[in-house]
Amino acid sequence: MVRVLAGLVLLLTAQSAFAQPQDWDAEINRHRHGDNVRILLFRDYHLAAGETVRGPVIVLGGSATIDGHANDDVLVVGGRLRLGPQAVVDGEVVTLGQEADVDPGARVLRGIDQTVMGFPDGDGNWGPMPQGWFAGLALAGTMARLLFVLVVASALTLFAPGFVRRISWRAGEGMASAAAIGLLCEVAFVPAVVVLIVALAVSIVGIPLLATIPFLVAAAGVAGTAGFTAVTARIGARVRGTTVEESNALFVDMLLGMAAVSALTVFARFAAFGPFWTSPVTWSVSATGLLIEYVVWTIGIGAACATVLRRWKGPQATPAPVSA
User: Fold this and answer.
1) Is the confidence at residue 275, as pLDDT, over 70?
2) Spatial distance between the Cα atoms of 75 and 60, rounded to a whole number of angstroms
3) pLDDT value of residue 199
4) pLDDT tops 90 at residue 21
């Protein structure tokens, strides 16, 4: 089992975040101490009856069927493992995620270690995860996040439209500068809060002010969301063929922009329920969608910081929206 886990660690540490699609589809064989460590990424594996494989078999994100002879450990993560009546495994069988389907005639010399991830049923017993449970959790988390942001963004556009328009103007005037400031704010925010807490804690006068830290964090969150709202509104206005400064429908602009920014992420979450949820295309679309959201958030945070701190020089007043 140690060799299996070592192979898994080597895989996870060596896999590049920008791997080419063929790196995900191809079977990776590595020679070590005379045996081949057989690693499959997001692919099913079948060892036919009468065949022998030497070395550990590691299947990540796919299912494995063993009908032949494996002379070492077999590890399956996220998929189902089936051992046929003629299966012989000289090492240990390890599954993580689903229960192994072991025929009574199969032989496993070093035992079976199963970790089943499941949900409690009505009787309080834990059963296996339903098909697509990971995709369901990811979709639920994404929709909950977007719904929360939408609620806050809606409140900002309805009750503080002038603030949102000023942030949007600054983002449009200096997008690169806003992105740089936003990245700096993201990196420095947590250390700054920690330093502030320590400074207040060591000061007798500042101890009562520690109660204001949660409000400070909440205010920073609202300001960051205002920046995201402003950038999405600017995108939505462009979709409608106008600008935020000239638009008289800021709320509609925000809805259109937010839909455009989150479209790829939501599409990837629904696509994960299909038969190709492990394909490089689906994962690439999901990563691209999250990257687009991150860029918009970063630009918005930078523009919001610049607006609050008044570091940029803008016009004397934000152009008023055109009346309907």
Assistant:
1) no
2) 8
3) 86
4) no
37 closest CA partner among 61, 64, 72, 68: 72
Residue with tokens 């523009």: 303
Phi, psi of 304 (to 5 degrees): -65, -40
Residue 1 in this model has a pLDDT that exceeds 70: no
Query: Residue 261 CA to chain centroid, in angstroms?
Result: 15
> Residue ranges per domain, the chain?
2-128, 133-309
pLDDT > 80? residue 109? yes
Q: Is 15 exposed, middle or buried (0-12, 13-18, 19+ CB in 10 A)?
A: middle
Beta strand 112-116 with 93-97 is parallel
Alpha helix locations (H) across the chain?
2-14, 21-25, 133-159, 161-173, 175-201, 213-239, 250-271, 280-309
Q: Which of 77, 83, 37, 32 is nearest to 56 (CA)?
A: 37
The pTM assigned to this predicted structure is: 0.61
How much is the CA Rg of the chain, to the nearest whole Å?
27
Q: Calculate ∠ Cα 262-219-137, nearest 5°.
A: 35
Residues of the chain above pLDDT 90, percent: 47
Phi, psi for residue 217 in degrees, rounded to 5: -65, -40
Residues with Cβ within 8 Å of 8's Cβ and at least 6 positions away in sequence, in order, are 58, 60, 75, 77
For 115-184, give the DSSP string: EE-EEE-TTS-EEEPPTTHHHHHHHHHHHHHHHHHHHHHHHHHHH-HHHHHHHHHHHHH-HHHHHHHHHH
Q: What percent of the chain has pLDDT over 70?
A: 77
10 Å CB burial of residue 121 (0-12, 13-18, 19+) is exposed
Q: Hey, what amino acid is at 287? A: A
Phi first, then psi, for residue 97 (nearest 5°) are 125, -50
